[in-house]
Design brief:
Helix content is 51%, strand content 12%. It is an alpha/beta fold. It has three domains: 45 residues, no CATH class; 207 residues, Rossmann fold; 57 residues, no CATH class. Strands 3-2-4-1-5-6-7 form a seven-stranded parallel sheet, with helices on both faces.
Length: 321
């Protein structure tokens, strides 16, 4: 298979070429070694966009709200990138594209770039390559990047570190499971949205969230609670205003560096995990690995000691490189 011309693609990306953007996103999703080459070439052109994470349980209307929010931002003159993280197909490993279908109103807008990404087994609500895809959209020149998570629940903490502003969506009447999720999401949210606010119980949901927010500390920022009806664009203007307020708050109070530090730490840890995982997959094909497995079965070595031996093998692989 022909190797991609990364220097040419990145040069085209920096000139605003959307086709090059799409090809580079495919590269960073499929080939971690090439992803390293891509990001090293574009990294100094990143860091100018406002990254907004949109998370919440499945069925809360995230995709419809992202569609409405992006439309509102376009009317204000901002260019928008959207990364919709979707569940993986059990057959191909790809995304189901359900989120992208709900954003069909934006597809013909030249100021919007939409990319669906499959989780491919990654936890935390976003895909392994999401942070790299964000950087590619920044290098493309997008003003605002919306990242919609898969919607798994309270374990979606990665989006808090990957974004500047985290928006957590809930809806009235989802029951006790969502109430429990709120406790886990209190640390994530910079803004809460009670979507489908025309349903019975919306005001109760707002009151519950506001009472819980009294127990949290977000560095002086109290997350607002916004009611929306995304199918009718109700509350979208207010949500956009609260998002702007939060971004300005970060800049005015010198909190942006803290956000950047947490993101860098998360990325480093995730990349190290990914590198080691790939190394172990290769080591599993070796005689030495099979010998360790046999020794564990025969009680000649315990699993923890076997891991020490595997890590020595990993180290040798990188020393050779």
């Amino acid at each position: 298979m022909t190797k991609p011309d990364i220097p040419s693609l990145t040069a085209r990306l920096l000139k605003g070429d959307k086709l090059a953007c799409a090809k580079l996103m495919t590269i960073v999703e499929n080939d971690p070694a090439d992803a390293k080459k891509v990001i090293s070439r574009i990294y100094r052109h990143t860091g100018r966009a406002h990254i907004i994470g949109i998370t919440g349980p499945q069925g809360s209307g995230k995709s419809t709200l992202v569609n409405q929010l992006a439309s509102h931002l376009r009317k204000k003159g901002s260019t928008v990138g959207i990364i919709a993280v979707d569940v993986s197909s059990p057959f191909t490993g790809g995304a189901f594209l359900g989120d992208r279908i709900r954003m069909k109103d934006l597809i013909t807008d030249r100021g919007v770039f939409i990319r669906s990404m499959a989780t491919r087994g990654c936890k935390g609500g976003i895909a392994r390559a999401t942070c790299d895809a964000i950087k590619i959209l920044e290098a493309l020149g997008k003003d605002i990047i919306l990242v919609e998570t898969v919607g798994a629940g309270e374990d979606e903490v990665d989006i808090m570190n990957a974004s500047h502003t985290s928006v957590v969506i809930t809806v009235p009447g989802l029951g006790d499971d969502v109430q429990a999720n709120k406790a886990g999401m209190m640390e994530i949210a910079d803004i809460f949205v009670v979507n489908k606010a025309d349903r019975e119980g919306a005001d109760i949901a707002v009151c519950e969230l506001e009472s819980m927010l009294g127990l949290t500390d977000k560095c002086g920022w109290k997350p607002p609670v916004v009611k929306t009806i995304s199918t009718g664009s109700v509350g979208i203007n207010e949500l956009a205003d609260r998002i702007d307020e939060h971004f300005n708050y970060l800049k005015e109070n010198d909190l942006m560096r803290q956000k950047l530090k947490r993101r860098a730490e998360m990325e480093i840890v995730n990349i190290v995990k990914d590198v080691i995982a790939r190394d172990v997959e290769e080591i599993k094909k070796s005689e030495a690995y099979n010998k360790l497995i046999e020794e564990i079965i025969e009680k000649k070595i315990d699993p923890h000691s076997a891991v020490d031996e595997i890590l020595k093998m990993v180290k040798k692989r990188h020393v050779k490189e």
